[in-house]
Amino acid sequence: MLPPGFHPWVDVARSGPTYLRTRAMSSYERQGNVNVIEVVLIAAVVILLIGRRFAGTPVGTRSLVVPLILIAYSATQLHFPITVTDVLLILPELALGVLAGVGRGYTIKLYERDGHLWQRYQLATIAVWIAMIAARIGFETWGHALGASNATSVGFAAFGFSFVVESFVVARRAAATGTPLLPRPVRVRGVAGIR
After folding, report:
1. 91 in helix, strand or coil?
2. For 107-156, how does the pLDDT look when each residue is reduced to its tens digit (9 = 90+)?
3. Which segments of the chain does DSSP mark as H helices, in order?
4. CA distances for 74 relative to 57, 84, 87, 163, angstroms
5. Which residues of the chain have pLDDT under 50?
6. Of 8, 187, 163, residue with least CA distance to 98
7. Domain spans of the chain?
8. Using an 8 Å Cβ cutoff, are 162 and 154 in contact?
9. Strand, coil or helix: 28
10. What is the dihedral of CA 102, 103, 106, 111, to 10 degrees?
11. C-alpha distances in Å from residue 190, one per residue of 56, 62, 186, 194
């Protein structure tokens, strides 16, 4: 018989849900308490981005700044050393982000407005978001049950990657339409203008 703590599923089989709660709590304790302000700020940014995209925006106006900030923030939150359990959590979660980005990119409605190409989230796009968030909660729960020290921080990277991939898919679809994009505003001597 294996000693307790040697393999998480051995202990789960012996101890059941009580072990999972204890294991999840010890994982949170290792990371420190989850900063509620960080979670609220990230949630507000994501909700703002989703709201703007649901209302419709010109194609090409999406910035990669916020997704790259999410990815960078996630990298700063990693706990070292990274264990095998962490890798088993990180890889599928990043794959989830890529798949969600592709799914959203193909469900976004592209349409012409005022002679330029615009984009808007549809209900199918929101369904992909809901599926990603549900899967993300599942990964977080699974990661904490296994004792992964990076279960929380990887989620921000998954959201960031999903936004980056979504932007690339939309850009590719937009190029195939042949509809002109709205010119980007440029700053000339401190004044915003249109090229």
Report:
1. helix
2. 999 999 989 999 999 999 999 999 998 998 888 888 888 887 777 778 88
3. 8-15, 17-31, 36-55, 65-76, 84-107, 123-146, 153-177
4. 27, 18, 14, 14
5. 1-3, 6-33, 195
6. 163
7. 8-183
8. no
9. helix
10. -110
11. 28, 22, 9, 13
